[in-house]
Design goal:
The protein is of the alpha+beta class. It is built from 30 helices and 21 strands. Helices cover about 35% and strands about 15% of the residues. The protein is elongated.
Length: about 950
């Protein structure tokens, strides 16, 4: 993050008539890089660029004293006479401002004469020290100690240091907070930290610039927050922020800080009215009423998710935009989706996201352009052409051939042509293709990926047989499955009966029957897609691997006027060539079902969507000095921003999900149905999820308290190591602040936070089972560990393997576009074409060229770690502990354990006895390795759902 220029409201306008601030902040990452690449953009004042380094001041520094606050003191610089009269101890406040992330944005720096002048005279940053104590005589808050800070250093690591000297009078008490006012004219500051130090002589302990930054701090406050400019000139107006020195429970808050604690929370809650501005730091709730765009296109009308019994859903951050003219329940989609200022991407993250987004979109566009875009539903003419995407790449088209993209891409294309890339763009070869180019054809790999692939949350134990639907047979047709014991026993080689296999916990299933069946006819009403309900059955063999036995596809009974009866058929592996090709096509349908379930339920709903209410409630009800807030805060990083971007381009009407995944325009409705039927908080921890699916049973004698049904289950084996590490760390942290049940039950902020999560953030589930009471340290620790697990490890498990498992789309097609050729009533022409050329029939069932390359590009983006990522247990995100040695020690143990887990995972991936993660052509399972470098690595657990 950086110190940015943010124009005031009377800034020069862009060509579209909006202020440059809203134009750039409200634009997509695609626009940001395109604008930056444009030479003409240098002549216009950008709205969001880094400042150049301010002028160094050498070793001489101006000493500015301080005075106790008063309404008139602000107009004059504090005097040396006042400070010396009050002084008992001299301290220096050292504020560190992040300036730039480097790169091409350095060339876009505007003139900043006004702000430089304020820096020169020492009036750009105003600091106030707040005493933790009340005045013993008056019982009122003590006057703050105030001082302008002056710039003393502009360091090589792109930070600028400001210092303010204070003479702290005897009896002032502990400094409990620092008030910061940004006096720049139009520049918002990203304040990294504030340290209070005892100044030393320049010849002894100060740094080369004569500053006190190198001295050992008496107090260090990590801020990592934007401070808006104080344009009004009033000390209580916008631009003044409070940063607390130490964590306190509400009942333990020092008297001198109570009003500051209360006021800061009130400011973050807002009043629930008006449209939010990008500079706001207000957190409030709304339904998902902004996915449709009926004013632009009637076909883009979508139901509101959340707030109704028909479409229950978690809440999102309120933006307050005007409502649609054609549908008063739908919010308009004008401008960027608001997130509170501190939830925005850092410049480094934005830069990486912009570059990756643009190149990914270009990679997706090039094959589409080369197919001339005559038919966006055009399939790939051969598997050879699919392989060419990775082997030879594709030549860059002329800018004029880019159609709707040429307005933003030509300059970037020219830059790429001028590079040594020889005018060729390549998709990286996914790791599964590197390992085994034909692995997607093998049943063994299909089965293995249910345990060690990108959606390991779907497989479940078969606990009852025969299978039976819970849907109304009068609507959907007979509830009984067509999968019989005879079918399964034949495929098992008659080694045992189905009854014995169920009893011995040897049968497992992907069950997408009841979730999808109500949507089959809705989805089929759309062009170029189809849908079935499906059941896929596996058998656990003696060597610990899964054998794929059978797939059942079901079309429900259809309503009038067609009034067709239910159709269902079971497909199995076969030596008959026709049946073998039907088997391959049936597997493609199931893979498309699994892709939709993964993206809409396991990934979006259970991590991105379900976590956002926790973030909003925490900021509204937990003070930033609350220990629980400090624990959770790193696990909320960037989530609201990436969710806002998803609402802009991924899950919205006409977005990438609707264009490229089987459910199409009904995708988010299906996600709502899954929330209604499947989501509950107490099943979101890893052990509880495994038990719910029958993949484990509670066993206090086992290492992790559960016994796995499949011993070689890579995701569960590694994930339980990470879950235990998280839970132990959180238990130690909670124990430090909550000695007993009374402390938990009596924490007013904590209880308000949890009540708001249940009753508002997840209000459509407030009467549902699964919400624990936060009434003991143990229940609190488990709930917090669950939230941290979901935001970090759960998300990592289903996100960062996406490209390596689905980048080669035949392995995991996002959509199945054609029906099974044997579906009744049989289309004789389609069946004849299938028999004549089954290879072509399978490719026509796959995503089109446009759909496939677009999804590949998006998965490439989503699977890539940012250079500024913060990983689980990383020391850069150690919790603000106020110097608490116990907390530091516990976190150090957490960090060490996660490093140890990395070694354990490496050892498991080299163990030939573990056939689900080690062997010829098998991609090692690394998604639960905690740490990673930037890029596409298929490992690393970020602290938060940050991409």
């Amino acid at each position: 993050m950086a110190l940015l220029i943010k124009p005031s409201t009377n800034t020069a306008q862009t060509c579209c008539g909006c202020s440059s601030a809203s134009a750039v902040r409200g634009s997509s990452p695609l626009f940001l890089l395109a604008a930056a690449a444009s030479s003409s953009s240098l002549s216009r004042r950008p709205s969001s660029v880094q400042l150049g380094r301010a002028r160094r001041r050498g070793k001489k520094k101006i000493v500015v004293g301080c005075v106790a606050s008063s309404k008139s003191a602000r107009s004059e610089a504090p005097s040396r006479r006042d400070s010396s009269a009050m002084a008992a101890e001299r301290v220096t406040a050292v504020a560190t401002i992040k300036v730039t992330v480097g790169g091409f944005l350095n060339s876009l720096r505007p003139s900043r004469a006004i702000d430089n002048f304020k820096d020169l005279i020492g009036r750009s940053l105003y600091l106030e020290l707040v005493s933790s104590q009340l005045d013993a005589k008056t019982g009122q808050e003590k006057p703050t100690l105030r001082s302008y800070a002056h710039q003393v250093a502009d360091n090589d690591d792109d930070v600028v240091t400001y210092e303010a000297d204070f003479d702290v009078p005897a009896g002032f008490g502990d400094v409990g907070a620092v008030l910061v006012t940004n006096e720049h004219h139009s520049t918002e500051m990203f304040l990294q930290d504030i340290k209070l130090v005892v100044p030393s002589s320049a010849s002894d302990d100060s740094d080369d610039d004569g500053s006190a930054a190198a001295a050992s701090p008496l107090l260090a406050i990590r801020c990592n927050s934007w401070v808006e400019p104080n344009s009004g000139g009033d000390g209580d107006a916008a631009g003044k922020r409070v940063f607390f020195a130490k964590p306190y429970l509400p009942s333990q808050t020092p008297a001198g800080l109570r009003s500051y604690r209360k006021k800061d929370l009130e400011e973050k809650r807002g009043d629930g009215r008006g449209q939010r501005k990008s500079s706001d730091r207000i957190y409030d709730y709304d339904t998902y009423n902004d996915l449709g765009d009926p004013d632009n296109n009637a076909d883009k009308a979508r139901p509101v998710l959340g707030g109704t019994q028909q479409f229950p859903y978690p809440r999102r951050c309120r933006t307050g935009r005007p409502m649609s003219t054609k549908d008063p329940k739908t919010e308009t989609r004008k401008g960027d989706n608001y997130v509170p200022r501190d939830e925005a991407f850092s410049e480094e993250k934005q830069l990486q996201f912009s570059v990756t987004t643009l190149q990914s979109v270009l990679q997706a566009a090039v094959p589409a352009v080369q197919s001339t875009l005559i038919d966006p539903n055009l399939s790939f003419p051969s598997f050879f052409v699919i392989d060419k995407l990775f082997e030879d790449g594709v030549k860059l088209p002329k800018a004029e051939d880019l159609g709707f993209l040429r307005g933003v891409l030509p300059r970037l294309l020219q830059r790429l042509r001028d590079s040594p890339a020889d005018n060729v763009l390549l998709f990286d070869t996914p790791k599964n293709v590197q390992k085994d180019k034909f692995g997607w054809l093998r049943d063994e790999e299909f089965a293995r990926e249910t345990l060690a692939g990108m959606n390991p949350y779907a497989i479940e134990l078969v606990r009852e047989f025969p299978f039976k639907s819970n849907l109304d047979p009068a609507v959907y047709g007979p509830a009984e499955s067509a999968i019989t014991a005879e079918v399964l026993e034949k495929q098992m080689g008659h080694v045992m009966t189905v009854a014995d296999a169920v009893k011995q916990k040897r049968l497992f299933m992907l069950d997408y029957h009841d979730l999808y069946l109500p949507y089959v006819h809705k989805i089929r009403a759309q062009e170029h897609t189809t849908m079935y309900g499906s059941r896929t059955v596996f058998f656990l063999t003696g060597d610990g691997t899964l054998q794929l036995l059978a797939i059942e596809l079901t079309r429900p009974a259809s309503p009038p006027p067609s009034a067709q009866p239910q159709w269902r058929r079971v497909f199995t592996p076969s030596t008959d060539t026709t049946e073998s090709w039907l088997w391959r096509m049936a597997k493609s349908h199931v893979r498309a079902h699994d892709s939709g379930h993964h993206e809409l339920v396991t990934h979006w709903l259970r991590t991105h969507c379900a976590v956002e209410p926790y973030i909003i409630a925490a900021n509204r009800q937990l003070s930033e000095m609350h220990p629980v807030y400090r624990l959770l805060h790193p696990h909320f990083r960037y989530t609201m921003r990436i969710n806002a971007l998803a609402r802009s381009a991924l899950i919205n009407a006409g977005g990438i999900i609707e264009l490229s995944f089987s459910p199409g325009k009904h995708a988010m409705e299906l996600s709502s149905a899954a929330y209604d039927k499947l989501w509950r908080f107490d099943a979101e921890s890893l052990p509880a999820d495994l038990v719910r699916r029958g993949m484990a049973e509670v066993d206090p004698t086992s290492e992790h308290g559960v016994k796995l049904a499949i011993q070689d289950y890579p995701f569960a084996n590694d994930g339980l190591l990470v879950w235990d590490a998280i839970e132990r760390w959180v238990e130690a942290y909670v124990a430090r602040f909550y000695p007993d049940a009374g402390a938990v039950a009596g924490d007013a902020e904590l209880q308000a936070f949890w009540a708001e999560v249940i009753n508002v953030g997840h209000g459509d589930k407030k009467g549902a089972p699964g919400w624990p009471e936060l009434d003991t340290p143990a229940s609190l620790a488990h709930a917090l560990a669950t939230m941290i697990w979901v935001a970090s490890a759960h998300h990592a498990a289903v996100n960062f393997g996406q490209y390596d498992f689905a980048g080669y789309f035949p392995n995991r097609p996002s959509i199945a576009r054609t029906r099974m050729p044997v579906e009744e009533p049989v289309d004789s022409e389609a069946l004849a074409a299938f028999v004549e050329d089954p290879d072509n029939a399978l490719r026509e069932c796959f995503p089109s060229q446009v759909q496939a390359t677009l999804v590949m590009a998006v998965l490439d983006l989503l699977s890539t770690h940012s250079p500024d990522e913060e990983y689980l247990g990383g020391m850069e995100a150690a919790p603000w502990s106020g110097g608490d040695a116990g907390v530091r020690a516990a976190y150090g143990e957490f960090n060490a354990r996660l490093k140890e887990i990395e070694g354990i995972i490496d050892g498991r991936n080299a163990d030939r006895r573990l056939k689900n993660r080690c062997g010829a052509g098998i991609v090692p399972y690394q998604l639960m390795k905690p740490f990673s470098g930037p890029g596409l690595t298929s490992k690393g657990i970020p602290n938060s759902t940050s991409i």
